[in-house]
């Protein structure tokens, strides 16, 4: 499935957020301000801006930003519902997995079906990291400290495995990718921990940070993929 087709199926759009968000932890975090949109001074500049964004490269960036940002918000919602034992937890989990499949389709549009299957279902990759968060949520609800630590250890292992997968696929440096994946993991964990303690303001702040961080991640991945595949994403 090509990226333009994927976007048509999604029928959604996302605004790109710039900058990296800080890791979630025990200290209070505040949402960083979103930069104001660039101003244009005339119809010529606006037309040029629109033309610059109507490219396969821009389509890829918007697709990744949309899907990864959605992943963060769906993961926050699903873990909170799991912690509460909400009746709609299974529906929330199904929505999160549907997003996972759509991310894999975006991977397939560039690297093929085999890479997409590896991304989705290989040990310690995408679906596994969601399972590890489920394990953490169950342990947190049961005040199972050993279970929580085991889940965190598995998530740390995921950061290495997944960043290695991304580095091999895109040519981007693994150290930087692992730092970004670790940020994502700690933001989601931090948001759930805050929610469990009844600190809902902090939980929502970290959810917003996780969303913005994943959009920044989409930007980074899109830039690397475009540089790696100039013919596919030629203007």
3D architecture notes:
- The longest helix has 29 residues.
- Helix content is 74%, strand content 0%.
- It is mostly helical and 235 residues long.
- It has one domain.
- It contains nine helices and no strands.
- The relative contact order is 0.17.
- The N terminus is likely disordered.
- It is globular.
Task: Give a quick precis of the structure.
This protein is mostly helical and 235 residues long. It is built from 9 helices and no strands.
Secondary structure blueprint with pairings:
Layout: H1 3-10, H2 43-53, H3 56-84, H4 89-111, H5 113-121, H6 126-141, H7 145-170, H8 174-196, H9 200-228
Helix pairs in contact: 1-3, 3-4, 3-6, 3-8, 3-9, 4-5, 6-7, 6-8, 7-8, 8-9
Distance between the termini: 19 Å
Please give the largest β-sheet: none
Order of helices and strands: HHHHHHHHH
Task: List unreliable stretches of 5+ residues.
Answer: 1-48
The multimeric state of the shown protein is single chain
- Please compute the radius of gyration using only Cα atoms: 18 Å
What percentage of amino acids are in beta strands?
Answer: under 5%
Mean pLDDT across every amino acid position: 84
User: Got a strand count?
Assistant: 0
SS-derived structural category: mainly alpha
What count of helical segments does DSSP give? 9
Number of domains: 1
The outline comes out as globular
> Helix fraction?
over 70%
Features:
74% helix, 9 helices, mainly alpha, disordered N terminus
């Amino acid at each position: 499935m090509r990226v333009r087709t994927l976007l048509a199926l999604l029928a959604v759009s996302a605004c790109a957020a710039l900058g990296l968000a800080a890791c979630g932890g025990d200290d209070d975090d505040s949402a960083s301000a979103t930069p104001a949109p660039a101003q244009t001074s005339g119809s010529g500049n606006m037309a040029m801006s629109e033309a610059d964004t109507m490219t396969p490269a821009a389509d890829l960036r918007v697709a990744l930003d949309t899907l990864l940002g959605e992943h963060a918000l769906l993961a926050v919602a699903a873990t909170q519902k799991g912690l509460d034992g909400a009746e709609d937890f299974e529906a929330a989990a199904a929505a999160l997995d549907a997003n996972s499949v759509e991310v894999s389709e975006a991977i397939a549009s560039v690297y093929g079906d085999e890479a997409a299957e590896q991304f989705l279902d290989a040990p310690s990759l995408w679906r596994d990291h969601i399972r590890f968060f489920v394990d953490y949520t169950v342990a947190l609800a049961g005040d199972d400290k050993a279970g929580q630590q085991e889940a965190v250890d598995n998530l740390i292992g995921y950061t290495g495995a997944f960043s290695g997968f991304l580095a091999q696929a895109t040519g981007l440096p693994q150290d930087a990718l692992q730092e970004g994946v670790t940020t994502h993991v700690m933001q989601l964990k931090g948001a759930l921990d805050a929610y469990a303690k009844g600190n809902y303001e902090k939980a929502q702040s970290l959810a917003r940070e996780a969303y913005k961080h994943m959009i920044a991640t989409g930007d980074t991945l899109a830039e690397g993929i475009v540089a790696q595949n100039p013919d596919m994403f030629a203007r």
